[in-house]
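Appendix B. One record, verbatim.
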Amino acid sequence: MENNTYELNSLDHNFLTEDVKKIIDQNIEGKQTVFLGESVHSSGSDFLAKTEFVKYLVTEYGYKDIVFEADFISLLFIHNKRNLPNIWKESEQCKELMAFLKDNNVTIWGFDIQMGGDAHFVFPKKIKEFLSTNDIEVDEKFLNLTNTFLLNTSKARKVLSKSDIDFLNSYITALLQNEKVKTEKQWTRILESYKADIKLKYTDRGQSVPRLNPTRDTEMAKNLDFIVKQNPDKKFIVWLANAHMSKCNYEYMKGLTMGHQFRELNPNTSYHIAFGSVNRYSRDVKEKTIVTASKNNNNILYYLPSIHKNHFLDSKSVLSEFRNKGYDDSSIFNLYNIYSKKTDVSERDLLNLFDALVFIGEDWIEVSYEK
């Protein structure tokens, strides 16, 4: 394990070392997609570290497209950062990233089924144009209900009735069975994604998060698959949460299997790097808890030279006897047990889930916004 662990520089000073660059160079050869995960969407430290990887992949290897865990449909038509969640487009920790993407003409995409941003006006307009162009009757009721749904996704149950939703689902199903629609891969995928969002926001509203995961992760994998296959000559960076990008399909993941499903659709074309801050919970757990964990050989921290420095672990190269072992990660990468019962096992074969792990040992930086 020690032979495959490399120290990284500080976040504000040439974060990627030459040794780590060599490991990345070897592992991304022939890979169309590189996944960069974050522990939680409020970890500014993860954003800063991921930005350094993005800069390297874009400038050295021409990964000129980036797909966020963000609105698939809006970003399919309008590749603008305004269709990203505020955590990325407005945070101080992503300011450099956003400027870099703009300056280097990196195209922004999204793969999430959850619509927002420009969807409320771009989707009804585009689908009306598509249906009219193909001489498919446009029902104004469908457009009106769609508009109502898009403007009220967080309170869909309050503004739409069950009969409204039944109408939308029936209309979408009929469109998907239309022979002209079947020949249009883009619109087939858009309509299937929209139908899944309705299920997520209305039919399954109020369900526990683990019960929502299968719908969302399955369709997100299909959305990302559509994007990369429609653009075979492009190389993509995928920006998302660690929990969605695992390569495996275990029961304890409770449906968080987007990464695995994408790999099933695209074998041997992706490289998965998870990011986590060692001291993210220090305010709640206290540093001595982290120190104690680092002395336990069942904890992944045990194998780090220091819990106060940044490290890159090339898990793909670790011997199988270590790679197949279960480790407690002290919630550094925020995986799956966030929704588990206390009786569930805390150890998992962490090194099989991802191709590489980035440990940020510096003091944790929470996402912040300019005042």
